Amino acid sequence: MFKHAVAVAVTLLSVASSVKAHGYVQEVTLGSAKYTGYLPYQDPYYNPVPQRIIRKIPGNGPVEDLSLMDVQCNGWSAGGSSYDSAPAPIYGTVAAGSQVKLNWTTWPDSHKGPMITYMARAPSDITKWNPGKSAVWFKVHESGKNSAGKWAATDLLYASNHIYTFTIPPKLKAGQYIIRHEIIALHSAYSYPGAQVYPSCIQVQVTGSGTALPTSFVSFPGAYTGSTPGITYDVYTNTGTYPIPGPAVWTGGN
Ligand SMILES: *[C@@H]1O[C@H](CO)[C@@H](O)[C@H](O)[C@H]1NC(C)=O
């Protein structure tokens, strides 16, 4: 039984990597604690299924229809709605002001684009909370194309060993949050639909004595449409500044 499960996983893995070599977050470091990500080609085949702090994803592929719930935490509408932001059974712990490191799997160099991170404060137990279409998300970090023309999701990611780093806002009020992190790949974004969103939702308990909370929020789906600057964008001909989609980064009462 176990052998069979592993064989299926290995087969799926090789099919997936030959057809669609995209990616996902495979490891999360909160301060100094390391957590394995949700591994879509392995975890479902184990009994019991390993408990992760990342909400489950169907695979390494993107979301292109930005009106779907899938764009929140990476879902799979074609396979039903069971993946759509289904809570994970556990969460990690991280102090406000500390660094979060997200380790991405192999990422194709054609898939240039920004890396963006949002958070949402859970009103109750995060292992049961599904934000739906409510406006609860605020942006905490973004990285697009720098002045040297280097892209976050390819150049900078490769230069840092596939590790993306951001800091939990130092004065953020303690509590449970979903960290929604994404790469938006722009290789087909010259028309809509075309931009490919690769979201991940990580459940954390933020600790600390801060009292700051943002006052404006966006929803997913909702924050991005075909007419959002940076969603429809010709990455091959635009040599200027790249407008990173979504609201301004919340400076966290700093
Ligand atoms: C990223 O995660 C993979 C899989 O766990 C691991 O092999 C690799 O060493 C990690 N990369 C870094 C830079 O820690």
UniProtKB/TrEMBL annotation:
Residues in Auxiliary Activity family 9 catalytic domain copies: 22-239
Cofactor(s), names only, from the UniProt record: Cu(2+)
Top-level lineage group: Eukaryota
Leading EC class: oxidoreductase
GO biological process: cellulose catabolic process
UniProt-listed CDD domains: LPMO_AA9
Keywords: Carbohydrate metabolism, Cellulose degradation, Copper, Disulfide bond, Hydrolase, Metal-binding, Monooxygenase, Oxidoreductase, Polysaccharide degradation, Signal
EC numbers for this chain: 1.14.99.56
GO molecular function annotations of the record: hydrolase activity; metal ion binding; monooxygenase activity
Pfam families in the cross-refs: AA9
Signal peptide: 1-21
Known catalytic reactions: [(1->4)-beta-D-glucosyl]n+m + reduced acceptor + O2 = 4-dehydro-beta-D-glucosyl-[(1->4)-beta-D-glucosyl]n-1 + [(1->4)-beta-D-glucosyl]m + acceptor + H2O
PANTHER family: ENDOGLUCANASE IV, PUTATIVE (AFU_ORTHOLOGUE AFUA_1G12560)-RELATED
Annotated family: Belongs to the polysaccharide monooxygenase AA9 family.
Protein name per the record: lytic cellulose monooxygenase (C4-dehydrogenating)
Organism per entry: Collybia nuda
Lineage: Eukaryota, Fungi, Dikarya, Basidiomycota, Agaricomycotina
